[in-house]
């Protein structure tokens, strides 16, 4: 089990959003939280991004880092824009620089999150270079 749960409690984390591959470990973590007397955070599990083999995107499958994207000319606002577009929180017509955290917070609705995994190649199609 990862050490994030006790650290999260000590840091006041009350919401956890993570990949749906970790959903099966949630009951054990909740039990441990109860045994330790910690408050239970709310959990939201989201679909993973898939690689070309339709498996979880991992380093061995060609996953890229933020450093890799920066080397290809992506800025932080480009990454945020692609992620926002993949969650239907922004349109392709919105300039990357206008998609701020305040804008995204105002648009966020957990009920609208995707229920199916996305392919990395499809995410790349959402990039509109600035």
Can you describe what's shown?
The protein is globular and about 50 Å long. Helices cover 36% and strands 11% of the residues. The protein has six helices and four strands; from the N terminus they run H-E-H-E-E-H-H-H-E-H. With 130 residues, it is of the alpha/beta class. It starts with a helix and ends in a 6-residue tail after the last helix. Helix 2 (26-36) links the parallel strand 1 and strand 2 (42-46). The chain has helices at residues 4-10, 26-36, 66-71, 76-86, 101-107, 120-124; strands spanning 15-19, 42-46, 49-50, 118-119. The strands form two sheets. It has a two-stranded parallel ribbon.
Put the structure in a nutshell.
The protein has six helices and four strands, in the order H-E-H-E-E-H-H-H-E-H. The protein has 130 residues and is α/β, with parallel strands linked by helices. It has a two-stranded parallel sheet.
How far from one another are the termini? Answer: 41 Å
**Strand order of the main beta sheet, please?**
1-2
Radius of gyration: 17 Å
- What percent strand? 5-15%
Q: How many helical elements?
A: 6
| Largest beta-sheet characterization | 2 strands, parallel
Low-confidence stretches: none
SSE order: HEHEEHHHEH
Helix content: 25-40%
Inertia-based shape: globular
- How confident is the prediction overall: mean pLDDT? 86
Structural class: alpha/beta
Which key terms come to mind for this protein?
alpha/beta; single chain; 130 residues; 4 strands; two-stranded parallel sheet
What layout of secondary structure does this protein have?
Elements: H1 4-10, E1 15-19, H2 26-36, E2 42-46, E3 49-50, H3 66-71, H4 76-86, H5 101-107, E4 118-119, H6 120-124
Parallel strand pairs: 1-2, 3-4
């Amino acid at each position: 089990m990862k050490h994030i749960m006790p650290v999260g409690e000590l840091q006041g984390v009350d919401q956890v959003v993570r990949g749906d591959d970790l959903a099966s470990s949630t009951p054990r973590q909740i039990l441990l939280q109860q045994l330790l007397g910690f408050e239970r955070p709310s959990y939201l599990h989201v679909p993973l991004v898939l690689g070309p083999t339709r498996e979880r995107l991992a380093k061995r499958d060609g996953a890229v880092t933020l450093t890799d994207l920066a080397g290809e000319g992506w800025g932080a606002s480009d990454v945020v824009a692609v992620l926002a577009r993949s969650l239907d929180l922004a349109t392709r017509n919105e300039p990357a620089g206008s998609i701020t955290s305040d804008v995204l917070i105002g648009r966020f609705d957990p009920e609208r999150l995707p229920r199916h995994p996305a392919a990395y190649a499809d995410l790349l199609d959402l990039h509109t270079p600035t």
